[in-house]
Amino acid sequence: MKKRSWNLVYGNKGFAFILDVFLAILLVILMLAASNIYIFKNTKDTSSNLQLSKTGSDIVTVLDNTKELDTLNKDSIEDSISSLIPENYGYRFNISWQKSGEQEMQSFEIGNIVPNDKFVATGKKFFLVTNTDETNITDYGSAKYWIWLK
Amino acid sequence: MKKGYLLTLGMFMVLIIVFALAISFNKSVEISKDRLGIIGISDRVFDLSSSVGNGLIDIIKIYSDFDIVIEENNKINVSFTEEISRVKVDWGISLDEKITEFKDFISSQDKNIKFTTESFDKELPLEITPYNITYSRTWGTGHVTLKVVPQTINFDGFEILINTSQEMISQVNVPNSNPGSFKFIVKAVDNFGTNIVNESNIDPETNNQVHVNLVGGNQVKVTVSNNELEVWTNSPETIITTIKIFGLPVLNKEVAVVYPKIVYNVTFPELNIVKLADIQFM
Q1: How many contacts does A have with B, using Cβ atoms within 8 A?
Q2: Which of B130, B172, B144, B157 is nearest to B282 (CA)?
């Protein structure tokens, strides 16, 4: 006579069934967890990084086209940047220039310290400073920017 | 029993599909991230490159007494206006100096930008793209010549405005004219009230000339021959000339006037990016 492992009414079938269900659920959970990891690993939106870069470029273009950069005045340029940049953006601008016919380089910086724990968009543009009637170039300049999400 | 197998198999297949979709989603996100990165870098390179190009164009516009207008309607007109005399040294005195200063400034500020040409050539040429038309000037002994050379005559005609300003025009005559279907318009004006328009339809392959004679013996000769246009003058005084190439067909490519001799490149070796650029008047 065959001996039962457990002295149950329905024999060992229930035990095997529960073990099967448990293994099946474990497999499902493992597969779903792996899928979840794959899906959510990369869902952080990086398009905002591109937007940051474009914002910096657009601000320098506006400052150049409105001749604000031609003033080479720190306060005036800072006011313009503050009015152009969205409030949730941090920024730093470096404006460097050299007078035509001279070697000495001058510069000033506007904005906060660049963070090193988040994405920072950076770029540079060159510009020319002309006199009021635009018949003479007085300075050669470059505007470098760093922009990040606060 | 069979149903159980099918159910297990079905569930397993669903899980495999979910897993495969997750991997595929992950891959496409990675690809789009890479593409966004490339777009970001391209924008940065474009910004740098176009700001250098715009700076050079501004310098040329300010210091060369040179103006280019591109009109786009159902046909394209391109015109070049400049103040020119037979004295080569009078032309663009500060131009080279300013271009050199700007180049030096850029080199000191950005190691990624390198110029492959040293100076601006007063004799040009400029190229109208995509039409393969060149515009150039040459100084000879006691005269200067502006020249327009098209590869093919696929436009309606030339319109030339000669403004001699303080040099009085004595006479305008037409020594040669061969009839055809190509429009050839010469307007001669001065500050003393002269305003003469000579308009004719010519054959551009043959010799066609209009002479603007100035008081004192100097001349401006406008010639269309072998499909080319020449404006020649021996005037020591500044003459304002506008050469309009009109009726160019609209093509798929954007119209630009390119100065091909100043070439610079923006290079980011760590990203394997090299962008060659030249000066384009759009």
Answers
A1: 99
A2: B130
